[in-house]
Design goal:
flat, mainly alpha
């Protein structure tokens, strides 16, 4: 294993730990603030966004297998944004905002699928 492969594996390992770390930190902050469930959702969302940000790496142009994996960072980012908005809405707008969150998330997932289909063509 070369040093570059070791660094890539090390980076992937740490990006996977951001999701449970976000859960624990969000739950702890949420318990302190009196909003455990919203804190958990926001922490989960931040973990997803952080892991998506760490997966963003530049790869050589000739390595097609890594380019396919490289494009998959948007789904965790979208999930993270969804969970962050969900957690915030649980505190500020419990009933008025829920239909818009669900609809907006489904629209973003649909756009993501369209973008992936054009990217593979």
């Amino acid at each position: 294993m070369t040093t570059e492969e070791g660094k890539e594996s090390h980076s992937r390992h740490h990006s996977g730990l951001l999701i449970p770390a976000g859960l624990f930190i969000g739950l702890g902050v949420g318990l302190l603030a009196g909003y455990a469930a919203p804190g958990l959702m926001i922490g989960l969302g931040l973990g997803f966004v952080g892991s998506a940000a760490l997966k963003h790496q530049e790869y050589p142009a000739g390595d097609a297998a890594r380019h396919i994996h490289h494009g998959s960072r948007w789904m965790p980012a979208l999930l993270g944004i969804f969970f962050i908005i969900l957690g915030i809405s649980m505190v500020w707008a419990p009933q008025n905002f829920w239909p818009y969150i669900g609809a907006g998330f489904l629209i973003l997932v649909g756009i993501w699928f369209i973008a992936r289909s054009f990217g593979k063509a």
